[in-house]
Amino acid sequence: xSAIDAIPAGTRAAASASNAPxxxxxxxxxxxxxxxxxxxxxxxxxxxxxxxxxxxxxxxKTTLFSLVTRLYDHRSGSIRIFGTEVKxxxxxxxxxxxxxxxxxxxxxxxxxxxxxFYHASLHGIARHIAAERIAHExxxxxxxxxxxxxxxxxxxxxxxxxxxxxxxxxxxxxxxLDEPTVGLDIASRQFxxxxxxxxxxxxxxxxxxxxxxxxxxxxxxxxxxxxxxxxLAAGPVAEVMKTASADxxxxxxxxxxxxxxx
Amino acid sequence: MSPAHYWRCLAGIVRREGLRFxxxxxxxxxxxxxxxxxxxxxxxxxxxxxxxSIIPPYTxxxxxxxxxxxxxxxxxxLFQGMQSSLSMVYDREMGSMxxxxxxxxxxxxxxxAKLLAGVIVSVLQAYVFLAIAYFWEIxxxxxxxxxxLPALILSGMMLGAxxxxxxxxxxxxxxxAGVMNxxxxxxxxxxxxxxxxxxxxEASLTLYYICQANPFTHAVELIRFALYLEFNAEATAVxxxxxxxxxxxxxxxxxxxRGLIARRAAA
Lengths: 262, 267
Prior knowledge:
heterodimer; A: alpha/beta; six-stranded mixed beta sheet; 10 helices; 39% helix; B: mainly alpha
């Protein structure tokens, strides 16, 4: 028996999975009937990276999220989460993703902690473990004294924070956020941005943050520009600006999207 | 994913359905008032109009109120099944259906768990109705209350599965009135809930065949026979078969690769 054989298969798989990028999308196309909404989309996100998926309404951001979370299957191309093809092993892929959807998804008539316990149960987390994690996550978003309140009584910003706490309960390694700041006031928006930045920096989480707001792009971060179902640019913001020969992200976005009228 | 994961997930989905139900008292009261209105007003009014002869499972002449009680239990379950389907469609727009579907457990299991949670609520409603009906002299044998439990579970599953199927197939249930007109009323009236089928047969042979083909008729007969401690094999077989068909189609409808959910998403 060689040394490598002595390592349990699970450990080896875990080791290779941890080396794989958090999310790799290659040649992804999708159509509803004749209408193509995503065309040959390709990009990747590494652990600890917060990438902004920048696109106007109708660019295909929500469809992309639906495919990554396997609400329905993509027609061609591949989506790999830590090396796992979503279509082949959706269970393993979904266990590693935390999602904050564009629409509010909390049960308004249930309390904050009832909502969180429900989500923990969907991931098969035992109640006593869930209780610990809920206490931890809810404290991090500063809502510990609202735990027993019905969600209906919370403000929009507070509801969003509960949704972030919820998305982290099963300890995902990849966080997907679909326009999470829509309709929020400036303070709530800033809190959310900072919280996710901190998660990426301190805990090595990868995050894909979809938005149409250019000022949510970090100057030293990464950006993926999605326009009419195509990725026009992907990479560090500075490079994207250079490629587009613009001196601001807004300028770069305008230049990129202007060049491709269709 | 171990069996413990499945169990915790199921328990969580059932608990949520229960909490939602308790928190929406209006819904609970409406679910009870509806059949009680039929029992207390409609059945009393028709008491002398419709005579019911001795037909199985009854061994004596029964008052009309007694005859329609199982049909009204079916109505409770029909409404509950449709309401949970409506809440699925509503949920999906609100996004909480999305939350359910990102669970790493298999989708068929999530749908079955959702179905079972709805069935538990509908069985509870049926028993509360039976308890109130007891005071209006709907007095089946004591053991009938126990014997009806499996029947209620089966009929609840069938109607819940139909609701799930509709939620996956119908693009948009604009409001509950649409479901009432196109699903609840036809199913309820073209069945043995309000009148014995031999009477329907005298009036119209076509309608008789429609009633016979209506799975709701068999759900009602299953409940009726069980309540009077008799086993109706035909009704049981039809209800089980219909449940499997409805549930199979609902799971197909929600399948990420083939289902209707992928085609509808464009809208």
